[in-house]
Design brief:
Elements lengths: L13 H19 L25 H21 L18 H24 L3 H26 L5
Helix pairs in contact: 1-3, 2-3, 2-4
């Protein structure tokens, strides 16, 4: 990916692009779920009459676990190697503790927001969309991790 023309811009790293895309998609999902329950089909909203919340299904839980595992693999594959993203760089310009805490913290925050969205706005379509987003993000992150394992360390 040619970054020479955009060097210095915080939006050029793949990780930052994924974060921005997640925020955008999360905001769109929240906006889409704001409709009044009367305007939605009876099958879209699945809140019980007693006010209890419905837990997310196992497939979303699996997708969140796969997403976390792929990010852990990406952290392992990048540890000690030169980092192009200035936000994730340590003092020596390599990926280390600071970058891993930030990366896993953002990913944990995304999963927590998704969980809260699914708990307070139960919808099969929202859950399905978030599940596919998680699996897609996990596949891209796994691809980057596999690529990083092929790059020699310092």
């Amino acid at each position: 990916m040619p970054l020479q023309n955009l060097r210095g811009s915080p939006y050029t790293s793949p990780h930052m692009q994924k974060v921005l895309l997640s925020i955008l998609l999360g905001g769109l999902c929240l906006h889409a779920a704001d409709g009044a329950p009367e305007s939605l089909p009876a099958t879209a909203v699945q809140k019980p009459d007693n006010g209890d919340y419905r837990k997310p299904t196992k497939l979303w839980t699996v997708s969140a676990a796969v997403l976390l595992a792929s990010n852990l693999m990406d952290v392992k594959s990048s540890w000690g190697k030169r980092e192009l993203n200035p936000v994730l760089q340590g003092t020596s310009g390599t990926f280390g503790g600071k970058g891993s805490l930030l990366k896993l913290g953002v990913e944990g925050g995304v999963i927590a927001v998704e969980y809260l969205m699914l708990r307070h706005h139960p919808s099969r379509s929202l859950e399905k969309a978030l599940t596919w987003i998680n699996f897609g993000d996990a596949s891209l992150t796994t691809g980057m991790a596999v690529r990083n394992f092929g790059i020699p360390g310092r």
